[in-house]
Fold each of these.
Amino acid sequence: MSRSRTPRSRWLGILSLAAAGLLLTSVVAAAPHDASAATTKSSAVTTTDIPGVDEIRSSPNLKLVVNLPKETPLDATNSDLAFQGRYAFAGNYNGFVIYDISRPSAPTVVSRVFCPGSQNDISVHGDLLFLSTDSPRSDDSCDSTRVPSSETQWEGIKIFDISDKANPRYLKSVQTACGSHTHTLVPGRNRATMYIYVSSYGPSDTYVGCPPPHDSISIVKVPVHRPTDAAVVATPNLFPDGGYEGVPGQKSATSGCHDITAYPSKNLAAGACMGDGILMDISDREAPQVINRVRDTENFAFWHSATFNNAGTKVIFTDELGGGGAPTCNDTIIGPNRGADAIYDIVGRGDDRTMVFGSYFKIPRENANTENCVAHNGSLIPVFGRDIMVQGWYQGGISVWDFTNSANPREIAYWERGPLDGENLITGGSWSAYWYNGYIYSNDIAKGLDVLRLTDWRTWTANFVRYRELNAQTQTGRFGR
């Protein structure tokens, strides 16, 4: 989700319907995308009417198993998910929750850690848990308070010891330029080192610790057995030319990255960098090199996140039109190509690899104007011979879609709740929807943890894959690890 504060959020913090209307009716000269190839097709059961408040609708092959509501003190906005063994780790703007999911039909809370600092983007590795803090804080403790950006004392990465899941211990903080909106774990060449690629954006002349220009990411090196020695080792400039200049109020300018997804075994990473989508060679973990860059000045407003297919021959970019707080799943106003996914084929070899546009995908259901809905976080389902992804769309719900044919993606399953309110837009819905060891787990912003079961002939082989650990932004291939 994009930031809700100013000045860092720019147009992303303007979530009123009027602002959304400005975003959605303004068009500038575009790269030559074939809009006719972008029509979303679906083999899932769909309906033209909109569910009522809290009413659940779904295709026959995707069903809710259980929901665990949020509880105080972690009753703020839910954010991302990570997994390890029999545990799920759920970020929340007030901290994080560890769930025991050994019985997916009856998950239980192992511990709750109160440690405010939006967004608390989360990942895990071994006995370590990492949290992103992207709000100006009075200090680096879990008792910190929010302060004006002109008085920032700390923001960045927090590291916890989770060897005892019932009693996580805060170990170390690492301050990073412009904070840490999201982060991505990238294993080093040996098991003794882990790198964290920190994505942040939104510089300002009055923002302490975040002056313009900010065309870089921060790379934190973590000695796995000495995590208190973690430190920033590089801040590579990914956009020496400054990146896309943007269109005020319509298309976001590039000033850093929003999210990076790595495929370490292939030495690849894809960055969704506000106004640009990039492909990087990460052979040298401390010096990633941009090898290709794409823009979509017609339909993309904010390059939000990326996902590779299993073969590493495609990459999906998402457009978070409206900053995650606007009703953009509306065919008559928005259309099928904005607030959508874009599929790019990766062609060529080595430094000559380029990304070639294939088509767009957007959920084929109309949402109410009281529902924030746009493409958001998802992961691959580890299916043999196909490219299939599960994805959260905020109040658009959860979609499972097949992009094996880059030019003709199709939805094969969906599940959604109706709006939180029939009269007013209240932010909610699936922040992240990820496949993990036979089930789909969704961290709903307002409703808590949802566990769902997909029963479909096209995905049955995924039930034989078991992951020991899953951070969706660190891809490991179809066979798990």
Amino acid sequence: MKPQQKLALDLLEPGETTQTYLNSSKTIPSGITSKMLYKDIVTIAWPSLLELMLTQLASMVDMIMVGRLGASALTAVGLTTQPKFLIISIITSINVGTTALVARSKGQGDQGKANLVLRQAILINIFISVLISLIMYSTAEPIIKFMGATDALSLKEGTEYLKIQMLGILPLALTGTITAALRGAGNSKTAMIYNLIGNLANVVLNYALIYGNFGCPRLEVAGASLATILGQFVAFMMACVAVTGHRNYVRFRVKDGLKPNFKMMAAISDIGVPALIEQLVMRVGFIAFAKTVASLGTLAFAVHNVCMNIRALSFMNGQAFAVSTTSLVGQSLGKKRADMANLYATRSRRMGTVVSIILMILFFVFPRQIISLYNSDPDIVNLGARLLVMVSIIQIPQGSQFIISGILRGAGDTKATAMIVTVTSLFLRPILAIVLIHGFGMGLEGAWIAIMADQLLRTLLVFIRFSSGKWITKLDK
């Protein structure tokens, strides 16, 4: 493997204080060009974009294959979505601290500290993931009932799906930890490779286990869940190989052991806990929202899950550039170059907007064709197509919101985003959905108007925080 490419940032000397650069965000330092800045962003973002998009495409194939089994199967899997995302969100939140601290350590030129961050993050995630999986496995059926299962078949299949998912939480969590550390160091290519191979394994196993191909038993919904965790285990094994070698900046060495370092755990938690609160609040709001939508019946909930699955593909744009900005902003502030942090931030937003426009056109022009990939039922296609037009409208603000949140996380400014998500996800989205669905009788379209309102307000609030410049001064505090 070739040595990791140097960034434009690496050509500069450390700054003396972030305050020096607060009023020079538009001035490019001598020896650096705008082209170099864009190249740095793309170098980190494109592997993440490809990885995230193909990961979501694998999820879409998952849903398409399940959709061939009927609306009941779609509903069963949909009922597990928010509980599963809640777990993933908890794990991801801890890894926000991992990425930010590894990036900061690299900016400071302290590889030993970066490796310490990885080891402590692994310890934290082992404890959390084992605890969560045990609790969720033992309460799977009540959870599916709570999520709004309206018939015995959906309850049975949803419970089976969720229980199987819990068996794969530990490898999923540790893969996420390794990925977060690698991305913090600016290496997104390695994670792209092992996650893509894991997703490819998932798709092949879906075909084998859902329908009973290649001599495998026909397991239907349970087969889809089993294929997912087997794919995750493949990715985990490859991630372990990647991080135990000598090719990457961040390394895990067995001789260093896994002895707890409570000071470093506290540092990870200081950034991760506000992000955790943000995710917990958001998921509580999403669960309340999902229960409201589930009350509309099996068909409406099936359409909702199809459209949410498609919309998640559009997240990949903002998330990929967020990965890039989190790493570059973190490294810039670690080097006390707030001017570079600001330059990377503004250019990431510009590039994300271009991709958002492309996605907006795609969803607006071809909604019926996209929905038909999941199910050809005219009722599903007609309703789903109307919802995808709404998805197209929010592409630009949604992408910008993800990128700005990544900027704030790279600076360790996670408390502000937690407060913003509380306002939009816990209050605005579920309450507005209830009002529009039950008060005005707008059905599923009312729920999606609530989603649009959530995204627009959240984008406005994170932009106000970004524009204030307070995230830059986090380093000096």
